[in-house]
Amino acid sequence: MRDFGAILTERNGAIALIRLNRPEKHNAINSVMSRELIEALDAFEADDDVRVIILTGAGEKAFCAGADMGEAIGRGTDGRGTNDSAARAAVRLARVAKPLVAAVNGYAYGGGAVFAINCDIRIASENARFRFVGASYGLSVGASQLPRLVGGPMAKELIFTARTVDAEEARRIGLVNHVVPANALEPAVLETAGAIAHNSPEAIRASKEVIDIATANKDAARREMEHNLKLRGSEEHRERFRAAAERVVGNDRT
After folding, report:
1. For residues 13 and 158, what is the distance between their CA atoms, to the nearest angstrom?
2. Which of 51, 106, 221, 233 is the most buried (most CB within 10 A)?
3. pLDDT tens, position by position, 26-84
């Protein structure tokens, strides 16, 4: 596998690890990261020796802050291209056939929260935070996946309010499987991944497919995409995204 820049990859026997690697930008998703993440997932899926894939973020503060708004502002866009990059990577994560474990090492906001819920298992550090911010930008983000994890009423609360969920609440409502101290996160995730890798890869992949069929709703996912195609063309989304992006860029500069 070639060297990447916006991500790092590691191998530990049958376990592959992908680390989002833009810590100075809180691992925000730009077009390069999206392209490299998809390429790494393609390579690990094609490698029969890889049985489990771990996704995490570089640094101690953030798993992933979502789409890189600074990139969007720098290009003079309304965020459409950047959001599409994040969406393409999220869709690829959702289509991984092998077991995928998220090590959530800090905050996971927007597209980062979607990255996390598109993994099969989520193990979070005590400083993890989740926020589904789509409605504040005039988009529907995570609405098709979140109900199968936390139930419909809680999913509506998190998406309608765009409030922050801390690690302990995330564990209590079923958004994450386990919460561990920050210094124990990667060992805990590797232990879980090792237990998975020890079992039959064919049986694991078959079980994942069946569970996803039992719990996922493809009609909902398709409808969410249709809504976002329309919402991204609206003046409200452009205004909300531009205002939010200018706040983020302004904070980065101070």
Report:
1. 38
2. 106
3. 999 999 999 999 999 999 999 999 999 999 999 989 999 998 887 766 554 444 444 57
User: Among the CATH numbers 3.90.226.10, 3.40.50.300, 3.40.50.1220, 3.40.50.620, which is that of 7-183+201-253?
Assistant: 3.90.226.10
Per-residue b or e along 126-149, where b marks 16 or more CB atoms closer than 10 Å to that residue's CB: ebbbbbbbbbbbbbbbbbbbbbbb
Q: Residue ranges per domain, the chain?
A: 7-183+201-253
* Length of the chain counted residue by residue: 254
Closest CA to 14 of 48, 46, 56: 48
pLDDT in tens, 204-215: 999 999 999 999
Q: Please list, in sequence order, all residues whose beta carbon lies within 8 angstroms of the beta carbon of residue 214, skipping any fewer than 6 positions away.
A: none
DSSP 8-state symbol, 58 = S
Tokens 């569970």 belong to 211
pTM of the model: 0.90
Cβ atoms of 27 and 20 within 8 Å: the answer is yes
Rounded distance between C-alpha atoms, residue 127 and residue 191, angstroms: 20
**Beta partners for residue 123, in sequence order:** 103, 178
